[in-house]
Design a protein that fits this description.
With 429 residues, the protein is α/β, with parallel strands linked by helices. It is built from 15 helices and 13 strands. Helices cover 39% and strands 15% of the residues. The strands form two sheets. An eight-stranded mixed β-sheet has the order 3-2-1-4-5-6-7-8, sandwiched between helices. It has a five-stranded parallel β-sheet with strand order 10-9-11-12-13. The radius of gyration is 24 Å and the shape is elongated. The protein starts with a helix and ends with a strand.
Length: 429
């Protein structure tokens, strides 16, 4: 398989061209022939014009790439090696929604041939690839995994907005359904991953490795958030505590904050769901999730308390929320916990304006029921800086004084203005 791809006798296909799939497809397209498949025809047309719908890649990223973008099954059928990179969200009850990955499996089942390879990259619970996805492919194709086609799992490690830890520079975990597939899959990924690959002993091990990467981060951030709540009651600045503790060589430098997005705030639920199916309640993991999911309400409550104390009438108060995306310097609003902050503030009848240099106002309106303001006012009771976008880092005391009332509060969730705000009240997590 590897040699056929290198000699361009066969093609590799990436199914799902979002923030994970498109970078992978383009990276491979500099080495071999690639088919980029997405069910969204509008997105496909944008990529044909060298435009990344996720706003992560510049137009130059498409240069010199041997890639065909399509939403056609007939074109997809030309591929020999399939990579699935579709999202794996949770529903409103935090139950894994396997619809995208199962739909992708159906798509592959319609086009896969004897001797083909399929590798899943979507984050799932251990066992999902073999128990939920491959049976769909087998049923539709009439082919048998291992015998007629080969399968594997290689968890994505794309970090949106990160220009340092890119696909080529992060060790790639790979796995296969047997020894032969493991070696072939490893060689294929070594084409584009300069850092090399780690060969997991099984598909389940690779799935589990991915799920605990983000679960570990989630729990550490939850600890910082809980400490922030406790230290807030003691009138101690959390970031000063972390700075002091960080002088010890083995102290892990996590920070408090809103935990959203489509990885850290979602992946742990895949693991706890599977644990529950097996009759085990994952108490520590769910406790961490509970803390992080409730931080938006904590922020809103703290802000409203300041308003009540200093201006009295909450219904006449105005709050500016700066930052609506799920993390800094990206346009992605999926599972943004800033939306929860806005919702919680409005539940107190606070008047809320939202501003963000990256987010799309129409997308926010469609997804969360609020858009962005065209112009920032000068009479806010509170300004909440939720996301440390680069555009916010040079703002100073004079700026915040110019847009707030004299009793105004600067709520700096990530502590980027610590020791810089003197003319207004200051609060951070």
């Amino acid at each position: 398989m590897y040699q056929e791809l290198v000699n361009r006798k066969e093609k590799l296909a990436v199914i799902g061209l979002g923030y994970v799939g498109l970078p992978i497809a383009l990276e491979f397209a500099r080495k071999i022939s690639v088919i980029g498949f997405d069910i969204n025809a509008k997105r496909v047309e944008m990529m044909k014009q060298g435009i990344d719908p996720s706003n992560e890649l510049e137009k130059e990223a498409f240069d010199g790439c041997d890639i065909t973008f399509t939403d056609s099954l007939d074109v997809l059928r030309e591929a020999k090696f399939f990579i699935v990179a579709v999202p794996t969200p949770v529903d409103e009850h935090n139950v894994p929604d396997l619809t995208p990955v199962k739909k992708a499996s159906e798509t592959i089942g319609k086009v896969i041939k004897k001797g083909d390879y399929v590798v899943f990259e979507s984050t799932v619970y251990p066992g999902c690839t073999e128990e939920d996805c491959l049976p769909v492919i087998e049923k539709l194709s009439g082919l048998k995994d291992v015998i007629d086609f080969k399968s594997g799992y290689s968890p994505e490690r794309i970090n949106p907005g990160d220009k340092t830890h890119t696909l080529a520079k992060i060790i790639k975990v790979v796995s296969g359904c047997d020894a032969e597939s493991l070696e072939e899959i490893a060689k294929v990924y070594e084409l584009v991953v300069e850092a090399g690959v780690h060969k997991a002993s099984s598909i389940k091990v690779a799935e589990a490795a991915k799920i605990i990467e983000n679960t570990q981060r989630d729990l550490n951030i939850a600890l910082m958030n809980e400490l922030s709540i406790i230290f807030g009651m003691m009138n101690i600045n959390t970031y000063e505590v972390l700075e002091a503790a960080g002088t010890k060589w083995n102290f892990l430098k996590f920070q408090p904050g809103l935990v959203g997005g489509h990885c850290i705030g979602v992946d742990p639920y895949y693991l706890t769901y599977k644990a529950s199916e097996l009759g085990y309640d994952a108490e520590v993991i769910l406790a961490g999730r509970n803390i992080n999911d409730n931080m938006a309400k904590y922020v809103a409550k703290s802000v409203v308390q300041h308003i009540i104390k200093n201006s009295g009438d909450v219904k006449l108060s105005k709050v500016l929320v700066m930052g609506a995306t799920f993390k800094e310097n990206v346009s992605d609003i999926r599972n943004s916990k800033v939306a929860d902050v806005v919702k919680a503030l409005k539940s107190y009848y606070v008047n809320v304006d939202v501003q963000d240099p990256y987010a799309d106002s129409e997308e926010l309106q469609h997804e969360y029921g609020f858009g962005l303001v065209d112009k920032i006012a000068n009479d806010y009771d509170v300004v909440i800086v939720t996301v440390p976008h680069n555009e916010y880092k040079d703002l100073d005391d004079e700026y915040f004084s110019s847009i707030t009332k004299s009793h105004g509060l600067v709520a700096d969730l990530k502590g980027i203005y610590r020791n810089c705000i003197t003319n207004r009240a200051y609060w951070s997590l």
